[in-house]
Prior knowledge:
Order of helices and strands of chain B: EHEHHEEEEE
Oligomer: heterodimer
Largest sheet of chain A: 4 strands, antiparallel
Low-confidence stretches of chain A: none
Number of strands of chain A: 28
Structural class of chain A: mainly beta
Helix content of chain A: under 10%
Strand order of the largest sheet of chain B: 2-1-7-5-6
Strand order of the largest sheet of chain A: 3-2-1-28
Radius of gyration of chain B: 19 Å
Shape of chain B: globular
Largest sheet of chain B: 5 strands, mixed
Low-confidence stretches of chain B: none
Radius of gyration of chain A: 19 Å
Number of helices of chain A: 0
Largest interface: A-B, 19 and 21 residues
Number of helices of chain B: 3
Structural class of chain B: alpha+beta
Strand content of chain B: 15-25%
Mean pLDDT of chain B: 90
Amino acid sequence: xxxxxxxxxxxxxxxxxxxxxxxxxxxxxxxxxxxxxxxxxxxxxxxxxxxxxxxxxxxxxxxxxxxxxxxxxxxxxxxxxxxxxxxxxxxxxxxxxxxxxxxxxxxxxxxxxxxxxxxxxxxxxxxxxxxxxxxxxxxxxxxxxxxxxxxxxxxxxxxxxxxxxxxxxxxxxxxxxxxxxxxxxxxxxxxxxxxxxxxxxxxxxxxxxxxxxxxxxxxxxxxxxxxxxxxxxxxxxxxxxxxxxxxxxxxxxxxxxxxxxxxxxxxxxxxxxxxxxxxxxxxxxxxxxxxxxxxxxxxxxxxxxxxxxxxxxxxxxxxxxxxxxxxxxxxxxxxxxxxxxxxxxxxxxxxxxxxxxxxx
Amino acid sequence: xxxxxxxxxxxxxxxxxxxxxxxxxxxxxxxxxxxxxxxxxxxxxxxxxxxxxxxxxxxxxxxxxxxxxxxxxxxxxxxxxxxxxxxxxxxxxxxxxxxxxxxxx
Lengths: 360, 105
């Protein structure tokens, strides 16, 4: 059986799956799944091909959906996915991550849960909520959401999480204790002289470079950053980009110096691609230099954005890159971003994009 | 011939209470394979009713209640025509509608 790429999409109105062929030229859409619930993140366990979709419904609350047959049938559960009685209830699941049989879920209001039985039952990783800064966490525009979970590839005790308007936090003991890791990232919404606080920065996306667990990249509400010490300190990499604002960040599957961003025109200017012209920006040297990739992307009258989890790469060589827009289009490149094609259009607002490779 | 059979003596039992009739919305039932739109239950409060539904279809309680605990903000439970809370008592034979609220975008 030949290898093919499957794209997993979360939207405001359900999950979708886009099944590719071996050449990544032909794509078939299926969905909507999950009873058209708002789905914030869809991921797959590459070993079992089990697909998990996290979201929340305004009637029925949060849940993680699961399919073991590539989307043909789904079940859902939220058993244990709850804070203590009396606290603000969980509204929605925002992020999912998988490591060695354990599934993690980030939720709104910001918190972390884990499941050791494939999403059937959940346990609160309560240490994050016990951090002394917790009473002062404020929600961002999308709410107090934990939208990025970065798991150390070798050390099961280490986790980084990113929360809008709170920042990056790290644990080295499996979630018992956490420390903020925001030094060097900016908060333009604080008074002069207070713009580099311990926490309160609005991180939008956090990713780890392949093969370099100390190298992290983040797209922030206020700038783009790289860390080479596991997030202890951050350096700005926004010079050469058209703005300091954007949502998603995606890494190359093998090159730790390559990163892909979609800068938008600014947080008070509509949050569109700049000047109505779409571009993915690529660096191949860790953010020192940037190149706009525009071939095949609309270069006039494009008034869409790309949300925080809506860009991903595949592990194929040359690397495939995919991003979904707020206007429901899914763009793909099979050559490291040099040329782009809209492979799906007219979906609901795309919240997340991930990839899965199937076949030998 | 005289009828020498004495009338059957019955123990002093209360008459069985009529069950509560619960109607569930299709959009909820669709989440639980095998679930039914109309359910008859013998329970005395709305909280007991939701617990009984969760017993029949595990997970349904989470869809109707949050961890406050309370009926979810956009779910309405009507008992004999009146909007209810988890604490509302159910008279025998009560008529219960569980409905989704006008919501969404």
